[in-house]
Design a protein that fits this description.
N-(1-d-carboxylethyl)-l-norvaline Dehydrogenase, domain 2, about 325 residues, single chain, 4-stranded mixed β-sheet, 2 domains, alpha/beta
């Protein structure tokens, strides 16, 4: 299979370079200075045990040439950019006839749980991935991946579950083929029939991303616990199953540890990176905002998540740096 990585940032860049190093045909999709750097110098992946610079095809969109029929699209943009990416690629022509939305599998390797439903409106075949991959993208042409001894754990499945027997068999075969390629690229890639349960567990963990973006690493335990507790209550009210921290720790074990790269630890998570880069948007409305939505639908108060959502949007709007939001102001917003 050939892979098109739509969003060659921290997650997409790591997956793309490692798939290419494993001999797979990979095209990266990027924009702006990052795209220019990849075209000029290649994409450099820095890891605890060294670095790789991969010279890969890099584009800013689908173009006019038909995509090969054995192409897999891996969507790794932040959730707030999903709608634009889906619209850009859904009608891309495929060799032999038809479009990407009709014929090609779309893999959603993203935080949040709303991307799969959005994708299924346009793509006939959607494969969610629960991403455990500690990586950072701050500088054009460079991705830093801190996972060791494996760079990440990518739980692969399909959406929705419960298709008829023929569709189920095709989906299972595609899951296995994608997982096999990811395994060859050095990832831990289990196939999960309940992949969305794992993604909802990851959502709960990601509720702290906004707190870290606002406050840095000095987050009061009580505040982090409150944000998560609201999430657990909202999922319970909505009767949505999710993995537990104990289950996740047992699965991860010591296979994906965070190690320094060139003597430096990971700077911060995905939302922190968006503020640090001045990206102009974050995924907070699809993380804490997902819990706010569920709370409003099912009568569960979520004031801490509402405050985090509002504060991160304010930080973007007012160009408040990563980790520089006043704790007292956030506590006032919650109260």
């Amino acid at each position: 299979m050939r892979y098109v990585i739509i969003g060659a940032g921290a997650v997409g860049g790591t997956i793309g370079v490692r798939l290419a190093e494993a001999g797979r045909d990979v095209t990266l999709v990027a924009r702006g200075a990052h795209l220019d750097a990849i075209r000029d110098r290649g994409l450099t992946l820095r890891q605890p045990d060294g670095e790789i610079t991969a010279r890969l095809a890099a584009v800013d969109g689908p173009g006019d040439r038909p995509l090969p029929a054995d192409t897999v699209l891996i969507l790794t943009v932040k959730s707030q950019d999903t709608a634009g990416a889906l619209a850009a690629w859904v009608d891309a022509p495929v060799a032999g006839g038809g479009t990407a939305g009709e014929r090609l599998p779309l893999v959603t390797a993203q935080n949040g749980v709303a991307n799969e439903r959005a994708a299924l409106r346009l793509f006939a075949t959607v494969h969610p991935v629960c991403v455990w991959l500690p990586a950072t993208h701050l500088d054009p042409g460079v991705v830093v991946a801190n996972g060791y001894p494996y760079p990440g754990m990518l739980h692969v499945g399909h959406y929705p579950a419960g298709a008829d027997d023929t569709d189920q068999a095709i989906a299972d075969d595609t899951d296995q083929a994608i997982a096999a390629d990811l395994t060859a690229a050095g990832f831990v890639a289990p196939v999960r029939p309940d992949v969305m349960r794992w993604k909802y567990g990851k959502l709960l963990a990601n509720l702290g991303n906004g707190l870290q973006a606002l406050l840095g690493r000095d987050i009061p335990d009580a505040l982090a616990e409150r944000v998560r507790a609201e999430g657990v209550a909202a999922l319970a009210a909505a009767r949505i199953a999710h993995t537990s921290p104990d289950e996740e720790r047992a699965e991860r074990g010591d296979r994906v540890q965070q190690r320094p790269v060139a003597g430096e630890g990971r700077s911060g998570g995905s939302t922190w990176q968006s503020l640090a880069r001045g990206a102009g948007s974050t995924e907070v409305d699809h993380l804490n905002g997902e819990i706010v939505l569920l709370g409003r639908l099912h009568g569960v108060p979520t004031p801490a998540n509402v405050a985090v959502q509002r504060a991160v949007r304010r930080a973007v709007r007012e160009r408040i740096g990563a980790g520089a939001f006043p704790l007292a102001e956030l506590e006032k917003m919650i109260a």
